Amino acid sequence: ITRHLTDLGIPPAYVKDGRKVATRGKRKQGTAGVWWPGRVGLIIRNTTYKGVHYFGRRAKRIKEPIKRQVPAIVSEETWDKAQKTLKRNLMRSPRNAKNRYLLRSLIKCGICGLNFGGLNDHNDTPYYRCGGKRKLRGIYGKTGEPCRSKYVPLAIEDMIWADLEEFLRNPGDVLKTLAENMDGLEDDDSIAKRELELIQEQLKEKDIERGRILNLYRRGTIDTALLDHQMADIETERQNLTQALVCVRERLGGVQAAATRIDSAEALLSELNGRLDGTLTWELKREIVETLVEGIIVETVEKKNGKKEAIVHVTYCFDKPNSLLTNHTQIRASRRWGLKISRMYKMGAGRSAWTSNDSLRSAAA
């Protein structure tokens, strides 16, 4: 972003305002005339752009900042999406990592909810470990205890990659399941359209009611106080109906977007399948993993003999992100019909003692 702004010739604030700096290197004074990542990061995180400004954050004399509403430059949905993108990029950034782990930032602990990270043991054997086992974070960190989750060997990478390669080489089963899960889509579409018609009819009825009340007032049947009371009630009901109308339209938009799910999934699998035929680098494998792996949860079960067993739940998602969906209601309605595949792996006492259990499921299940 910083490079793009600089290439476009868009000046930073101090250049635009014509501020001059006599001495280079003076504190809090920019002199290079270019954009820096830190400045862009502050802009993206600033709540003022979504219409919420806090006064007195830096003032020592003010105990609590004063919150106030200001004109928004971007929608709250866009701002929230930017924060999630920043968080996701931070989690997936290799930063100072010495080793590369294919499932970095994708594995979460089923006990404390923290992320698993990759590291090597004293024998230089790589594996994944919950972040709560080292820094005493999460629900166990409050009590001064490490997380009780089990370590996950690096063999999980090969198993998940084998799944992905199977999906890409033989996409027929995935597409067949997706088609079967679309059977109820027409019902959702019909229900949403019927709700839309009913709300529109009720809104017309409110306009008729308003006219009747005004006629009664003109005839002298009701006084001003009763008129104001009735008109206020009608306006409240209209606002509620209008809000419901917006929600139904958004839901209908999400359902209609889901109707293209089969073609979207087929195109996605075909595109990724074509890339497998070239040079299979680690970077390409990581890109495919980020595209198709929605999440991995490690559940730790303690047996009667005191030994722990790790049950790894992997969820694969075959939906391309739809940039036309602009709000949470549309996205939820669309995801209801998205195709996902869940697979479960169990790890016994040995590091390579793995068994798997496959299950195809729809997000609507």
From TrEMBL:
One of its GO terms (molecular function) is DNA binding. The keyword Transmembrane helix does not apply. InterPro entries: DNA_bind_recomb_sf, DNA_bind_recombinase_dom, SSR_resolvase, Zn_ribbon_recom_dom. Transmembrane segments: none annotated. Residues 231-275 form a coiled coil. It comes from the Bacteria. Gene3D superfamilies: Putative Large Serine Recombinase, Chain B, Domain 2. Residues 20-89 form the Recombinase domain. The keyword Coiled coil applies. Residues 102-164 form the Recombinase zinc beta ribbon domain. Keywords: Coiled coil, DNA recombination, DNA-binding. PANTHER family: DNA-INVERTASE FROM LAMBDOID PROPHAGE, SERINE RECOMBINASE PINE-RELATED. This is Recombinase family protein. The lineage of its organism: Bacteria, Candidatus Eiseniibacteriota.
